[in-house]
Amino acid sequence: MSPPLVHDYIGLSEASSNSDKLSSSSSSSSTEDEKKSNNIDLNLKETELRLGLPGSKAPERKAGLVLSLFGNDLEDKPNGFKSFVSGAKRAFSDAIDGSGKWVFSGSDGSEDDLGKSGNLFSPRSGKNGLMESNITTQPSSCLAGPSVREVVPPSKSVQEKKTQVSTSNQHGSAPAAKAQVVGWPPIRSFRKNTMATNSTKSVDDDGKSGSGCLYVKVSMDGAPYLRKVDLKTYSNYMEISSALEKMFSCFTIGPCSSQGLPGRDGLSESHLMDLLHGSEYVLTYEDKDGDWMLVGDVPWEMFTNSCKRLRIMKGSEAIGLAPRAMEKCKNRN
Amino acid sequence: MDPKRSRNSHESVNSSESTRFPDEVLERVLSLLTSHKDRSSVSLVCKDWYNAERWTRTHVFIGNCYSVSPEIVVGRFPAIRSVTLKGKPRFSDFNLVPENWGADIHQWLVVFAEKYPFLEELRLKRMTVTDESLEFLATSFSYFKAISLMSCDGFSTDGLAAIATHCKNLTELDIQENDMEDNGGGWLSCFPENFTSLEVLNFASQQGDVSFDALEKLVDRCKSLRVLKVDKYVKLEQLHRLLVRAPQLTDLGTGNFQQELTPRQCAELESAFSNCKNLHTLSGLWDATSLYFPVLYSACGRLTFLNLSYAALQSGDLAKLLPHCPNLRRLWVLDTVEDEGLEAIGSSCPLLEELRVFPAAPFDLDINRGVTESGFIAVSRGCPRLHYVLYFCRQMTNAAVATIVQNCPDFTHFRLCIMNPGQRDYLTGEPMDEAFGAVVKTCTKLQRLAISGLLTDLTFEYIGKYAKNLETLSVAFAGSSDWGMQCVLRGCPKLRKLEIRDSPFGNAALLSGLAKYESMRSLWMSACNVTMNACKLLAREKPRLNVEVMKDDETDSQVDKVYVYRTIAGPRRDAPPFVLTL
């Protein structure tokens, strides 16, 4: 099976550039440890997303590269990006305050690795994030998407212009960074937001009719943006969990990824317990009826048919899911 | 009785002396006038007619809330029962107007509470409405009946709860496409048990659940309910339960249309739809696929308006559905139906008058799907009565548009959005000037025009020369010089609203409209080449215009956004710091 095509927010798939030179449009986030352990096959380093803490800089980054998205000004203003955060609906401010939600479980606290570029995504990702759909705009072209409400005239947007971001309390999401221009095409927010969710579903429908892709959104508690994965590219839970692990770099599904699963589609009871007790995060999904279910209960095909989106939930929140899952496991056994 | 009103009543007895209508008669006649344009004309005839008109007016329409003040309105019209107010410039829908710009309803409500205690209806568009305002509204007007909020912001479902709780005579609660905070669906349960007067309920844009139990009971007891639009969290089997309780509906917005139903449930749903003998408008249909369309077929024959713009249908789905809907007058779809889907429209819906094709993935630069010029042509061939179109596409040709307007010369609203700014005719490589030239030359009844694609001043020359009935013009990324805008300002006698973004029009263009702006509702220019000096000059020369400027940069003389509108209320008193009134 070919590795899943992981797209970062600007639509680059696994970059082939070496680790020292970052592609100008990517920003990566991971700890050094994670990077080493990450599967080089996927060449995901270049597309990994870095989440920066205030004031931190990524040492191996070339100055200005990552921050070309917003012009070089931000490099000089370590706290300038705070203005982006205000109004972001997701609890990203928690992450910035270093509350630990976004602490990598494998890290040695090498947070100086974390480029602050990751924070740059906050104004858009304060909503449903950048992962809505593929983006091919060059970083120097405008990222003043619809969520940047004022000030950047679209005709100037193609230049690297310092943007003043007002508190952008736009409710709901907009696949904002894709838009080259503020407010264009002229579509009302309500429809934009609805289409953002609809596009996931319509692709799901395509998947069911066998056209070969089944993209669903993956969110992670505490992350400023979401990702999308194509369920058709995996054939069992282990594959998806390891792909997601790499994608989010700190997501641990517990022993599954390293030990491998027993020869069945579901997770055994003992694995489930290990999973919940051992790791900080739990993988859940929303099914067709709108209920949040623990991943791993049902056969893989049933899962791909009913999964509408994935969510990497904090283990503590997922506790309530466990007993039901346990029951199901027991009943199946 | 007011002395002014009774002034003529004595004179009318001596009919030989008086050639005037007695006031009572005049007022009786005028009270039958509903069109606000007619009323405006009537009020200009003479003082008597002005007075008679103002006393008999029950509905006031205010297209720009800053053109007049609440005090002026209540001073002139003492007997108002219904108010329609529009606030922000239209481009605020596309995030071109910063937050906290204004258009807050509250001050209006305060004044109305004092002078219009019998106020029954309030319809707002692009206004800021807070929960406090909604509560104030609900508690200040005991006869309040109808509220409609479209494209408004600032409120949450808590505000709806206040309305539901206090408005005992409510007939209409219409919440359309707003920026509404969702604090839960409990508001629906706030309607009292003995509340039965609801006729219109639209909460389709809500982003969360409501208590279905409360909804079901509400629908059950409101026997006059004719419009029901639920949000996408209402499931198909729940829809069935609502329909059997409200077969009298004329206008239905379904919830989610994708759920696994048993054959028996399907049959029941089909039966419920066929019992809705008055249903003429259908919308919602979230996530609909053709799987459950058969349940609709029995009702489709009566439909005149079908809104499929939240259902990402493929062309085959549409081709299956439309033959059952021969009476459609208005159809809204997503561009996922592609050109084949539009061909199906052309062949199945000969009575079609309005078509809107929305983009499913407007920001996706990769996608080459969607609709093209050939779909539009197909519709124009099959639907000669088409007069309203909103069309989002990624490619267009001048020849195609010329063909389309030949087929449908009666366009009143032509809004074409070629989604890539400044895009040429993809076959000839030319600008799209001739396309819009064809539109304005052929469609003499054209009232509203939105242009796109690569356009030079020639387009505007055409518009100025031919578009004699044009009232609203939307311009983006178009034109080559000031001359273009000058042509329009000099040429279109009925122009009322002109909104321009990202076009190379500068001071000369702005100032060429000096004589015109007072006859227009408003002018919006953003990301053009206008400077502060020109705006100041305009403001000086025309004191009855408000010239409001929003600037990028404190020091720059370049103006980012300028909004010019006529007013009798003077400069805004509630302008936020980033709005400079000159």
TrEMBL record, chain A:
Quaternary assembly: Homodimers and heterodimers.
Limits of the PB1 domain: 213-315
Predominant location: nucleus
Region Disordered, annotated ranges: 1-47, 154-178
Stated name of the protein: Auxin-responsive protein
PROSITE patterns: PB1 (PS51745)
Biased composition (Basic and acidic residues): 32-47
Protein family per UniProt: Belongs to the Aux/IAA family.
GO terms under biological process: auxin-activated signaling pathway; regulation of DNA-templated transcription
Species this protein is from: Actinidia chinensis var. chinensis (Chinese soft-hair kiwi)
Domain of life: Eukaryota
InterPro entries documented for this protein: AUX/IAA_dom, AUX_IAA, PB1-like
Pfam families tied to this protein: AUX_IAA
Low complexity bias spans: 13-30
Keywords: Auxin signaling pathway, Nucleus, Repressor, Transcription, Transcription regulation
Function of the protein: Aux/IAA proteins are short-lived transcriptional factors that function as repressors of early auxin response genes at low auxin concentrations.
Localization (cell): Nucleus
One Gene Ontology cellular component annotation held by this UniProt entry: nucleus
Automatic annotation (TrEMBL), chain B:
UniProt organism field: Actinidia chinensis var. chinensis (Chinese soft-hair kiwi)
Domain of life where this protein originates: Eukaryota
Pathway assigned in UniProt: Protein modification; protein ubiquitination
Keywords: Auxin signaling pathway, Developmental protein, Nucleus, Ubl conjugation pathway
A GO MF term: auxin binding
InterPro entries in UniProt: COI1_F-box (IPR041567), F-box_dom (IPR001810), Leu-rich_rpt (IPR001611), Leu-rich_rpt_Cys-con_subtyp (IPR006553), LRR_dom_sf (IPR032675), Transp_inhibit (IPR041101)
Subcellular localization(s) per the UniProt record: Nucleus
One Pfam family in the UniProt entry: LRR_6
Record GO biological process: auxin-activated signaling pathway; pollen maturation
Keyword Nucleus part of the UniProt annotation: yes
Domain F-box: 21-62
Main location: nucleus
GO cellular component, one term: nucleus
Coiled-coil residues: none
Keyword DNA damage: no
Designated name of the protein: Protein TRANSPORT INHIBITOR RESPONSE like
